Amino acid sequence: DEIISASLRLCGVLQDGQTAGAQQITDAAQALNILLKNFSMKGWIQSLYLWVNIPLTVGQVSYTLGTGGAGTPIDRPMRIARGFIRNLNGYDTPLIQLTRQEYDITTPKEVAGIPTAFYYDAQVGATSTTVGAGTIYFWPVVNEAGYEVYVTVERQIQDITSSTQQFDLPQEWFLPLKWQLASEIGPEYGVTERQQQRIDQKAEYYLKEVA
Q1: pLDDT of residue 127
Q2: DSSP strand E in 14-94: where?
Q3: Sign of the four-CA dihedral 71, 72, 77, 83
Q4: DSSP H helical segments within the chain, as ranges?
Q5: What is the tens place of the pLDDT at every residue in 155-193?
Q6: What does each of the 211 residues of the chain score in pLDDT, given as a tens digit?
Q7: C-beta of residue 13 within 8 angstroms of C-beta of residue 202
Q8: Do 141 and 113 touch, CB atoms closer than 8 A?
Q9: What are the backbone angles phi and psi of residue 53, rounded to the nearest 5°?
Q10: Which of 169, 23, 24 shows the shortest CA–CA distance to 5?
Q11: Which residues contact 81 (CB under 8 A, 6 or more apart)?
């Protein structure tokens, strides 16, 4: 809301002390999320990496990662960077990441043992068994309780969905976001051509500086 209000003031929509209306916030938030996706597509905003812990269940071949899935609640990972398995004594062993083709020819799929490899299927779209989740497969299938897997997952920048949500961005992005949002929504609020040019120039300058 702070970024949105600042952008609306740049456009002359709000005066000092005024509060943005609900529809103004909704419209600006939509524009802000579109901008974030555009910045990510251009490579200006990098993906986020985080650890996810997956406690293994004896005899279980696959686990979901993402909404409703195993480990820390996260968005569906785009990919997995690396992973390791931790044994009962706390020792870690790196896991081999298989391609789809490599996993397909690995048989039998349900052979019992201690996992040495994994394959991750991001399952983009409606093919996922859990909305917003991918599936990770381990081979061999764990045959002893107490083992855990830790994977480093890569996820996209999250959409802004609430008024107090924190950005998936460092603070140096706040100034470019303010001006970029003002540049994006200015035409909707009848900003004069001269004022729009000034906003566009400042927005471009701050974006290049941080990018």
Answers
A1: 45
A2: 48-55, 62-66, 79-86, 92-94
A3: negative
A4: 2-10, 22-41, 100-104, 174-185, 193-210
A5: 777 778 887 777 788 889 999 999 999 999 999 999 999
A6: 889 999 999 999 998 888 899 999 999 999 999 998 888 777 777 677 888 999 999 999 999 988 767 665 677 888 899 999 999 999 999 999 999 999 999 999 999 999 999 999 987 654 444 456 889 999 999 999 999 999 999 877 777 888 777 778 888 999 999 999 999 999 999 999 999 999 999 999 999 998 8
A7: no
A8: yes
A9: -100, 130
A10: 24
A11: 49, 151, 152, 153, 154
Residue owning tokens 């093919």: 127
The one-letter amino acid at 162: S
pTM: 0.66
What is the identity of the amino acid at 179? W
HSE of 207, CA atoms in CB hemisphere, 13 A: 22
Closest CA to 11 of 181, 132, 182, 171: 182
The residues, any chain, with a CB within 8 Å of residue 179's CB and separated by 6 or more, are: 7, 10, 199, 202, 203, 206, 207
- Which residues pair with residue 153 across a beta bridge? 50, 80
Cβ 83 vs Cβ 151: under 8 Å: yes
How open is the CA angle 86-92-97, to the nearest 5 degrees? Answer: 90
**Helix or strand (DSSP H, E) at 112:** strand 112-113
Whether the CB-CB separation of 117 and 141 falls below 8 Å is answered with no
